[in-house]
Amino acid sequence: MTLALPAQARAPLPPLPLFQLGPASPAIGEAKALLEAGRFQETLDVVQRGLDAPDVTDDELVELYRLQGLTALYLGDEALARGAYEKLLQARPDFELPRSAPPKIRALFAKLKEDLRNRRVHPVTLEVDPIPDPTPGETVEVEATLKDMALGARARLFYRRAGAQAFSSVDFTRDRARPEHYRAVLPAYELPAESTPYEVEYYFEVADAAQRRLAGRGDPFHPLLFQVVPRAAPTAALTQGQGRPWYKSPWVWVAVGAVAIGGTAGVVALSSSEERGRVPITIRVEDAAP
Q: How many CA atoms lie within 13 A of 196 on its CB side?
């Protein structure tokens, strides 16, 4: 549906009350100037550049989404406007448009606030797979999809060694090329290689600025688990004088090759109860017949 605004509602734009003036960032100032000049598509481009900038504050995001919604309505793109205002209201439920805003803009904004009160605005959703058993001593990268992320919310991966008292955490960061895709990195030093296996407990959580849980998988009382197993040890030398004799080794015989009658060699395949996989061993057998 296209929302047509009267020509008199487009220029000049009425000033906002002082308490609602946005932060004086370059993108916001440039976008306002372009909007007042009626250069709507350029305004959207500048707003998007501001949204993609690193270290954008929550107040800046609120103002950028306000400008995006207003500009989108001028262009007749109600879907974009609705999405911008929804994100704004997720972070600032008490945000109000100025009284001088055009009536049709105020009507849409009022409808969105009603949807928010009735919980028809989409909640934050988190899509993430469990962490598979990692290789010790290497970083672990976790990919997640976050939809309808509220302003001011943080997505984090919490983790601890099984049996430890407190959880540590790392933040998910947004992929600029794919806005709904996020990534968290578990440092390699948190997963050292040890001689025995150990477990790591973890969970995912999205929380708002007031630390209210919006979405998650697992929790501190019912965490998910992965195991860190030792790396494969080098094959022990099976020669006399180096380690235990071969006949006292814990190797378990699993298959024996045929031994030729004329005094040829036989092949024996061995597998260890202490190792994963198989190690081929060759034993030469001399025929005792004259």
A: 1
DSSP state of 16: P
**Domain extent at residue 274:** 232-290
Phi first, then psi: give them for residue 163, nearest 5 degrees. 100, -20
Nearest to 263 by CA among 232, 289, 234: 289
Please write the tens of the pLDDT for every residue from 124-178: 788 999 999 999 999 999 999 998 877 778 899 999 999 999 999 999 998 888 8
> Among residues 88, 117, 146, which one ends one of the domains?
117
pLDDT digits (tens, 9 = 90+) for 78-126: 888 888 888 787 667 677 877 877 787 888 888 877 776 666 666 778 8
Residues 135 and 110 in one domain: no
151 lies in the same domain as 215: yes
Rounded to 5°, angle at Cα 208 from 202 and 213: 45
Q: Which residues contact 79 (CB under 8 A, 6 or more apart)?
A: none
Q: Residue 24 is part of a domain; what is its CATH number?
A: 1.25.40
What is the pTM assigned to this prediction? Answer: 0.48
Residue 249 domain-assigned? Answer: yes
Closest CA to 16 of 57, 51, 77, 63: 63
